[in-house]
Amino acid sequence: MLTIEKSGLAEQTINKSRFYAGAAHCETEREVGLFLRQLAAQHQNAHHLAYAFRIKTADGIIPRFSDAGEPSGTAGKPIIQMLEARDLIYVAVGVIRYYGGVNLGTGGLARAYGGTAKMALDAATIIPFVEMSALSVSVHYNQVDALTRLVLQLKGKVLDKKFDQTVQVKVSLPMTEVAAFTHKYTQSL
Known about the structure:
Blueprint: E1 2-6, E2 8-14, E3 17-25, H1 29-42, E4 48-57, E5 60-66, H2 76-85, E6 91-98, H3 105-123, E7 125-128, E8 132-139, H4 144-153, E9 157-163, E10 167-174, H5 178-188
Antiparallel strand pairs: 1-7, 2-3, 3-6, 4-5, 4-6, 8-10, 9-10
């Protein structure tokens, strides 16, 4: 699976209709909503905002799309097909259409929406998706620096530190590194 590291934007004109697309990393449906509202706010006079997204939850991968008033299957479906074909996860794509007065037909609409989505994805920075896991550990004050170095070495992040008699450290690590972290943590500190 892949995901987006840096958002991508694209635009094109087809038979007097203008299409604008944005592709972004979104981890929740709430983030998707914020992304789409931002896109809509930038294009308040647009006629349509079709979108698609794929996110992962405890129940599996959730794909969603909307044709935004275009004929069924001509806008959102070609966008979601782009996401599925590239095996993208935690990605949302919104495509704005300013109607130019010329009907494109169902095939033309599907090609226009799908093609503009493809252009936005091509403009984005795509990276391999790494599943992360959050862990909490308790360490002595003199162990915090070594723990931080180990987390960074394993391509993880320190999310939070709470100082009391000991230090409670919350970290995020790639799932593939959890066992190594647990092993190295007990041996190196």
